[in-house]
Amino acid sequence: MNISTSAVTPERVLQRLDWQVIRRLDGVLQGNYRSLFYGFGVDFADLREYQAEDDIRYIDWNVTARMQTPYIRQYTEDREVSAWFLLDMSPSVDFGTLKAENEKRTVLIDFVAVLARLLTRHGNRVGAMMFGNGLQTMIPARGGRVQVLRLINEMLKQPRLSRVPVTDLRIMLKAALNTIKRRSLIFVVSDFISTPGWEAPLSLLNQRHEVIAVRLWDPAEMELPDVGVMIMEDAETGEQLYVDTRDKKFRKNFQTAMEQREDHLKHSFKRAGVDMLSLSTGDDMVRSIVRFAKQREKLRRLS
User: Fold this and answer.
1) CB 47 within 8 A of CB 63
2) Taking the model in full, what pTM does it have?
3) How far is residue 158's CA from residue 137's CA, in Å, rounded to a whole number?
4) Average pLDDT over all residues of the chain
């Protein structure tokens, strides 16, 4: 589905995604795009008597006790959502087993374009903060198709950084805390390969806004193939290491380390109260987004 970002224009990217992703999402979600972020912006509107199909979580127990019959609270959703994309454009995001055709960077661009298009079609505003070695680009939140094209254009223009200090997501999250004042929907799009300590600012950001972590990954990062002697290179620092992938013990240790990292990420998101959308370079984006929406809807019914 993905194609090289160097050979396309914003119009072509959006046209491709309109046909290949957004139309399919419209069919599956049936226009209910808010199932992706149900917790955002609702205002109390009125009270009415409970009906059989109503959600019991909205019962107003004080009024029910006074009236001796169940009453529920009705809410109206805010007409406008301000959404922000915090984008990790560090060197590790340029990794992909199929190179430019399927890099994490390409998945990032496609995801942001799709969500920005869905949001702006319904009258919402979107903005972005792009980080590589510090804040590189900030696009204030605005609405409309032109804004989506501007976001795509700026993402395509972001330089590929060959070497930087190890990514510190705290810088990105703290910048968002200091910059985004109005309660917003925030997508943190990253592979979360970072120095420790980003969990606390993520939790604080989620207390002020509704935050969704969009975790980018590639299958080759999870399990080493048996291909003999090879050079492994840290995408961000350039440090190289010769390894023999024929060594079963080495491959097993590598897999164990990756599984431990996965567990740490899941626990970190859970502690911060943030839901995670997992996007792999090897998965279909529509299926990943729909799976995430269904999981959130299920959690909502259980809460």
Assistant:
1) yes
2) 0.79
3) 8
4) 82
